[in-house]
UniProtKB/TrEMBL annotation:
This is NUDIX hydrolase. GO terms for molecular function: hydrolase activity. Gene3D superfamilies: Nucleoside Triphosphate Pyrophosphohydrolase (3.90.79.10), Winged helix-like DNA-binding domain superfamily/Winged helix DNA-binding domain (1.10.10.10). The keyword Hydrolase applies. Transmembrane segments: none annotated.
């Protein structure tokens, strides 16, 4: 009953929000050598979508994105970047809004604000998969992780938003060293290489990858990782934030691209 009441309150909350502006978040996580994204399933439908929301009239857009991410993941210390604005003329859908409301017993009047065209600001977020506690929003009945390589059909232009975010993530692997945000605090060189290979969608030569990563001088090597196996245990590494910032500020002396 509470969820039904919340839905009705939301559909009657137009005055709280900036008109026709929304935020959509592509939340990436890395687990078992798969790059995953969080998707919501709308209540009483088979429609899937990216987590998103609206912007309060007295709220910065970036703050709205942070709020939405905290509500969906339970985390506040998230790497977050705005990457694109989606405002195609046809992205609004009267049918879409009415289907969501109608599935929950609500008959929206003509030109209801929820059925209008929305311009959406896209953000991508990188999270430690193990720390996320997914929570659905008022319009959704469930939320879960999906392999980015095998995504189901998504509403509106959300498939395009995911692809644009993935393209940006691939570019930022070099320019911002963002991949470390998807790993736990300590990791092996093999863990790091598998992350890069998964994001880039291709295999990388181990010796070249290790040489390039170590040449950046942004990794702190820790004690060896004990595996209990017969093979030599790999070293554990940790990203050195201070050295990483120095590397990013020293663009003239950067080595060749990591992802080659």
């Amino acid at each position: 009953m509470q969820r039904s009441t919340d839905l009705h309150e939301f559909l009657n909350s137009e005055q709280q929000w900036l008109p026709s502006l929304s935020v959509d978040c592509v939340i990436f996580g890395f687990h078992e050598n798969e790059l995953k994204v969080l998707l919501l399933t709308f209540r009483r439908t088979d429609l899937l979508a990216l987590p998103g929301g609206l912007v309060h009239r007295q709220e910065d857009v970036d703050d709205a994105a942070k709020r939405i991410l905290a509500e969906r993941t339970g985390l506040t210390d998230i790497y977050l970047e705005q990457f694109h604005t989606f405002g195609q003329l046809g992205r609004g859908s009267d049918h879409f809004g009415r289907k969501i409301a109608g599935a929950n017993g609500v008959d929206l009047p003509a030109d209801h604000w929820f059925t209008r065209r929305f311009v959406s600001i896209g953000y991508y977020a990188l999270v430690d998969f193990s720390r996320v506690v997914p929570s659905p929003d008022v319009l959704s009945e469930s939320i879960g992780w999906y392999d980015v390589r095998e995504l189901p059909s998504l509403v509106l232009d959300h498939s395009l938003i995911v692809q644009k975010a993935l393209d940006t993530l691939r570019l930022m692997l070099d320019h911002r060293l963002v991949g470390f945000n998807l790993l736990p605090e300590t990791f092996t060189m093999g863990d790091l290489q598998r992350l890069y290979e998964t994001i880039l969608g291709k295999k990388l030569l181990r010796t070249n990858f290790q040489r390039k990563m170590l040449s950046l001088e942004i990794l702190e090597r820790l004690d060896k990782k004990w595996t209990g196996g017969a093979h030599k245990a790999p070293y554990l590494y940790r990203f050195d934030t201070k050295k990483g910032e120095e590397y990013l500020n020293n663009v003239d002396n950067r080595p060749e691209r990591i992802n080659t």
